[in-house]
TrEMBL record, chain A:
An MF annotation (GO) of this entry: thioredoxin peroxidase activity
Residue stretches of biased makeup (Low complexity): 1-17
Taxonomic path: Eukaryota, Viridiplantae, Streptophyta, Embryophyta, Tracheophyta
UniProt-recorded name of the protein: Peroxiredoxin Q, chloroplastic
Subcellular location(s) of the protein: Plastid, Chloroplast thylakoid lumen
Principal place of residence: plastid
Transmembrane segments: none
Family: Belongs to the peroxiredoxin family. BCP/PrxQ subfamily.
Catalytic activity: a hydroperoxide + [thioredoxin]-dithiol = an alcohol + [thioredoxin]-disulfide + H2O
Chain segments carrying region Disordered: 1-21
E.C. numbers: 1.11.1.24
From TrEMBL, chain B:
Protein name in UniProt: Lipid desaturase domain-containing protein
GO cellular component, one term: membrane
UniProt keywords, alphabetically: Membrane, Transmembrane, Transmembrane helix
Family the entry assigns: Belongs to the fatty acid desaturase CarF family.
Xref: Pfam families: Lipid_desat (PF10520)
Residue ranges of coiled coil: none
Keyword check for Membrane: yes
Protein's membrane topology: Multi-pass membrane protein
Length: 213, 314
C-alpha cells in the first residue's frame, strides 16, 4: 500500500489538509495494460509486452484478467463492519462484484447510491451486491452510513484482489478502473462491464444481465 | 485572471431580496445524497442568480450571518470603496489595453507588409477560442484548490470564494477595478512578446487571446447582469454565443457547482462538462496527489450564495 503524502515544500497551501492514503498502488497500471478499458464508450486496448511470469510467479503481481465464462479467483476481505467475507459465501446465488476507485468521490458516490436505489431489484433477482475498493474498513463504514448503503463494501487494501482479477486502470494508469462483474449461481462470470465516467450505467447493465439469467 | 478580493468589507450587513428558489443553505454539492442519485444538471433559469441588493434596506447592525472575526464573511456594501476604481487600477488597465493594441497593430502592419492575412486572422480566431478554455481551466483551478494563503493565487482564490457568496457584487464593481489585475498580468506576459516578436500570426494569436483574457472579467460581469440593464449590443453578443451567456454562467453558481467554468465565450463549457474533463482531472489529482477539490465537498456558508440575510431592521 503506497502512502502518499504531499511534499509540503513544493505545494504548500494547495494541500490544506487533504492528504490521504492512495489506495491505488503503482504496480496496478502494469496489470491493467493487458486489459480493455472503456472511457465514454471508447475502448482503449493496451497491448502488453510484459514478460511471461517467470519461475517465481508468486513474487509478481501479473495475472490473467478475469473474463466472461471464467471462475474468478476467490478472495477473503473485511467488510465495513470489520467482518471477514469470502467470495465463496455467495455461492449458490448470483453476485454483483463492482470495483470502484474510492469512497467519497463523485462518480463512486453516484454509483453506490444507484446500487442502493435499485437494491430491491437486485434482491428480487436473488442477487447480492458487493463493492470493492482500496479504502479501509473505517472509510467504508462512514461511506455506507452516510449514504445508507444496504450492501457489503469490502476493503481491498493494497489492491490485491483488484490485481488478481485484472481490473484495468483508466487514463493511462492514472485512475483505478471502475469495473463490474456479474457471477452466476455457479460462480462463473457472465458479465464484465467497465465504464469510469458513467457510473450509473453499471446498474442498468448488471440488472439487464441478471434478468436474463 | 483575477477578481479583486471581496473580503475587505467593513462589518455590516445588507439585506438582499432573495431570488434564489433553491434551498440555498441545505443544498449539497455531491449530486448523490442519501435520497437521490441523479439530477446532476441544475435547473436552468437564466436570471436566477441575480440578487439585487435593496438600496433602501441598508442596515448598520451586524447580521446573524456575519462572523465578526472574519471580514470575508461580512456582506459587502453597495457603495463600498473596494468596488470603486482607483487611478492605479485605471493605469494598469490602460497599460494592458495599450499592450494588446500594440500586439494587434503589429500583427496588422506585418500582415499588410507581407500580404499574409489569412493566417493572422485564423490565429486570432484560435486565440479567441483558446482564451475561453484558458479562462475555464484557471477558474476551475482556483475555485477548487488552495486557499487564501496560497502563494501568488491566494487573493484570487479568496476572491472567487467571495464571488460565489456574493455574485451580484461583480455587477457593482467599476470597470478598472474589475479588470486591473488581469491587465497587470497581461502587461507582464504580453509586453515582452510584443517587443521581441514581429510575426503577424503570433501577434494575431497573442493579441486576441490576451485581449479576451483581460476582458474576461468584463464578460463575466455582463453574464451576471440582467437583460434590461445590459447594453443591447452586449445582450446580442451573449445571445449569439460570442460572449458567455447569462444562462450558461448562472448554472455555474448553482448546484452542483462543478460546471460552466469558462467565462469568455463559454464555447468550451458544453464539451468540458459533457465529457467530464474537470472531473477526470480532479480524480487524477486526487489519486496522484491526494488533494480533494472543493467541489466534492458539502458546501459551507463561505461558499454558497448568500441569499437570505435576516435583518432586524425593516
Amino acid at each position: 500500500m503506497a502512502t502518499l503524502t504531499l511534499p509540503k515544500h513544493s505545494l504548500p497551501s494547495l494541500l490544506p489538509s487533504q492528504t490521504r492514503r492512495n489506495p491505488f498502488s503503482q504496480s496496478l497500471s502494469i496489470v491493467s495494460k493487458s486489459s480493455q478499458s472503456q472511457f465514454f464508450g471508447l475502448k482503449f486496448s493496451f497491448s502488453s509486452n510484459l514478460p511471461v511470469p517467470s519461475s517465481t510467479p508468486a513474487k509478481t503481481s501479473i495475472v490473467a484478467k478475469v473474463n466472461k465464462g471464467q471462475v474468478p479467483p476467490s478472495f477473503t476481505l473485511k467488510d465495513q463492519d470489520g467482518k471477514t467475507v469470502s467470495l465463496s459465501k455467495f455461492k449458490g446465488k448470483p453476485v454483483v462484484v463492482y470495483f470502484y476507485p474510492a469512497d467519497e468521490t463523485p462518480g463512486c458516490t453516484k454509483q453506490a447510491c444507484a446500487f442502493r436505489d435499485s437494491y430491491e431489484k437486485f434482491k428480487k433477482a436473488g442477487a447480492e451486491v458487493v463493492g470493492i475498493s482500496g479504502d479501509d474498513t473505517s472509510s467504508h463504514k462512514a461511506f455506507a452510513k452516510k449514504y445508507k448503503l444496504p450492501y457489503t463494501l469490502l476493503s481491498d487494501e493494497g489492491n490485491k484482489v483488484r490485481k488478481e482479477w485484472g481490473v484495468p486502470s483508466d487514463l493511462f494508469g492514472t485512475l483505478p478502473g471502475r469495473q463490474t462483474y456479474v457471477l452466476d449461481k455457479k460462480g462463473e462470470v457472465q458479465l464484465v462491464y467497465n465504464n469510469q465516467f458513467q457510473p450509473e450505467k453499471h446498474i442498468d447493465e448488471t440488472l439487464k444481465l441478471l434478468q436474463s439469467l | 485572471m483575477a477578481i479583486l478580493p471581496h473580503h475587505k468589507y467593513p462589518l455590516r450587513s445588507l439585506e438582499h431580496v432573495p431570488t434564489c428558489h433553491h434551498l440555498c443553505w441545505s443544498r449539497a454539492r455531491l449530486t448523490c445524497s442519501a435520497t437521490t442519485t441523479t439530477s446532476t444538471k441544475p435547473r436552468s433559469s437564466p436570471d436566477q442568480l441575480i440578487i439585487e441588493p435593496r438600496l433602501d434596506r441598508l442596515v448598520t447592525t451586524p447580521s446573524p450571518l456575519v462572523t465578526p472575526t472574519r471580514s470575508r464573511n461580512t456582506s459587502p456594501l453597495l457603495n463600498d470603496p473596494n468596488l470603486l476604481s482607483t487611478w492605479s487600477h485605471r493605469a494598469w488597465v490602460a497599460t494592458g489595453c495599450t499592450t494588446v493594441l500594440i500586439s494587434l497593430a503589429k500583427s496588422m502592419v506585418a500582415a499588410a507588409n507581407s500580404h499574409i492575412w489569412l493566417e493572422p486572422m485564423l490565429a486570432g480566431y484560435i486565440g479567441y477560442i483558446l482564451s475561453d478554455l484558458g479562462s475555464g481551466v484557471y477558474h476551475w483551478g482556483i475555485d477548487n484548490y488552495g486557499d487564501a494563503s496560497t502563494p501568488i493565487f491566494g487573493s484570487q482564490i479568496e476572491a472567487f470564494q467571495g464571488h460565489h457568496k456574493w455574485p451580484w457584487t461583480i455587477t457593482r464593481r467599476q470597470f478598472a477595478n474589475n479588470l486591473h489585475a488581469l491587465a497587470r498580468a497581461t502587461t507582464f506576459i504580453v509586453l515582452p512578446i510584443v517587443m521581441l516578436c514581429d510575426d503577424p500570426t503570433l501577434q494575431g494569436f497573442v493579441g486576441v487571446c490576451s485581449g479576451c483574457i483581460m476582458f474576461s472579467q468584463q464578460f463575466h460581469a455582463w453574464a451576471h447582469g440582467t437583460k434590461s440593464k445590459l447594453p443591447p449590443p452586449v445582450v446580442a453578443l451573449q445571445e449569439a454565443g460570442v460572449l458567455v451567456s447569462r444562462t450558461q454562467h448562472s448554472a455555474h453558481h448553482r448546484q452542483p457547482y462543478n460546471n460552466n467554468y469558462c467565462i469568455v465565450s463559454g464555447i468550451w463549457n458544453e464539451f468540458l462538462d459533457k465529457y467530464k474533463v474537470f472531473e477526470a482531472l480532479e480524480m487524477v489529482l486526487f489519486f496522484k496527489l491526494g488533494v480533494r477539490p472543493r467541489s466534492w465537498s458539502e458546501p459551507n456558508s463561505n461558499w454558497t450564495e448568500e441569499t437570505e440575510t435576516p435583518s432586524p431592521v425593516h
